[in-house]
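Reviewers asked in the last cycle whether our approach scales beyond single polypeptides. To address this, we selected a multi-component target totalling 652 residues and predicted its structure end to end. The input consisted of the following lines:
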Amino acid sequence: MLDTARMVRKAKLEDRVFAVVGVVCICIVLGVLAALLGRLAVQGLSRIDWAFLTSFPSRHADKSGILSPLVGSLLVMLVTSLTAIPLGVAAGIYLEEYAKKNRLTGLIEINITNLAGVPSIVYGLMALGLFVYTFRFERSVLSGGLTLAFLILPIVIVATRESLRAIPQNMREAAYALGATRWQVVRHHLLPYSAGGISTGVIIGISRAIGETAPLVTIGALTYIRFLPPYPGQIVESAEGVIRHAGPLDWVWSPFTVLPIQMFNWVSRPGDRFLENAAATGVVLLAVTLTLNAGAIWFRARMRRRIKW
Amino acid sequence: MASMMGLAASLVLGVGVSPASGQGRLIRIDGSSTVYPVTEAVAEEFQDANQGMRVTVGVSGTGGGFKKFCRGEIDIANASRPIMAEEMKAAKANGVEYIELPICFDALTVVVNKTNTWAETITVAELKKMWEPGAQGKVTRWNQINPRWPDAPLTLYGAGSDSGTFDYFTEAVCGKAKASRGDYTASEDDNVLVRGVDGDKNAIGYFGYAYFAEHKDKLKAVKIDDGKGGGAVEPNPESVIKGKYNPLSRPLFIYVNKKAAESRPEVKKFVEYYLENAASLAEEVKYVALPQAAYKMARERWNKLDTGTVFGGKPEVGLTIEQLLTRETVDAVKDAAKPEEKK
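The resulting structure, written as structure tokens, was:
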């Protein structure tokens, strides 16, 4: 005879135990996060003011700022997004909507998934050979941006495909039934519907890229920079001594540094005063990441509101 | 979308466009992390004093810096040791000629915990007993080094094996670069070592003088006796300048690409600014300046664009600064490499 009452009691107990375990796990995760953030904030928050954001790094800890690494990080991210988003989304759409399902696409699919797990330093080595030496882009914002773009490309592709797959098949069928071409289906239906999911993937990618140090160090991002890339129209003197206005894209050729590298540099300096700067840089880095995330969440919410199935 | 097209266009044209063209007068420096603070200070002051000049400083380590330097990718290499035979060959193969300029001293400092009452002085022989490869797992207590010291565990903190500091210390103490025991707390980040020694009563460690100077309140420097009859010497600017702090004081260098120095006024200007201000800026970042006479001699070498190294491509310990500047420079590896080639 089965003792149903006992089984029910046991199942209920298991349920409660799992709930407790779950709560404990989430507390540990949040606790670690809170401890990290708290420590960073306690050490660094008081150091952040307008002067810190708008001064160049200096050997004087208290006069130091993060202008060049902050601008460097933002410009590198600009190049990364402008490259990775169109490439990744287009590749994702092709694989999901256009490509025939055969062994070749299967192979490509597996490889893309694998690429997402390749250590970032490997991308750095690839980029050093390809961008810096073969294409002669030198150790510039362009090289750095492209390196990180390749790093996050698999993430963007996978996110794109998954959000396309989540769209019910009957949406496509309905559109085709009305005579829409494949491109019209993608353009008017699939892209708008999947924009939310795609932007989530993009933001995960960008958030990862902005904290990356290893591949940028490999391609030769620098530690100490006390100038900004030339803005379009800025009066610059070329190496040959010719004075002229900087072109609209001259900044992509500029040497650069980024926030994590500056942070690392300050952590290893003698004296505790630079540690404060490093912590403050960490806080700024987190703030930038959170701002990007918030922007993406807003965008996603907006896109979802427009979708009516 | 328009900017995307622009980027795509520049990508396609990328090979044709000269990346440096929009970058103004750019001076590229890379190399040792030990020399970095001095060069950083010079670069900061130089750029503040000269509008439009752009200086970039990287930290790839002495070896990494020389690699780029010998390929002609950078104008100046920061080096915490002289150029080695291999690197000289690479430079020659790429047609890179260089001027070797000593710019200041660093003194490797042996430190113990503030509460350590026994180790006031230490001989180089004792240091060797402590750090040589054979000591691994065997020499683990203070009284094994010196019977007058207590029977307490010996905990060691030292530079990681990728640093020039490690190379120099092992060369000076164990007689062979990179010959060291491995069972110690190693870190490329000297702050880790500072914290380690600070928190451990039985600790002993070594790192650059600047880190000690910055943490004088937490650590105690041990006087070094090189066993040549001079007695134990404390690491401080005076003893280093006088050449008494042996064998752990070492000169730091910059190597300047000759072609860049000749053809680009900004590089020339920067190096001149460097030699002029090295003394005061080195002191400011807690390094030891060379004697004034040495800077004068360095400037003479610079004015003559006298290329090559005085070391002949092999590591040397305990050279005085005068020897460094009066010796003949050589461009190619002569005596140093020959025995190896014969083998």
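Chain A has a mean pLDDT of 89. We regard this as preliminary and will revisit it once experimental data from Aim 1 are available.
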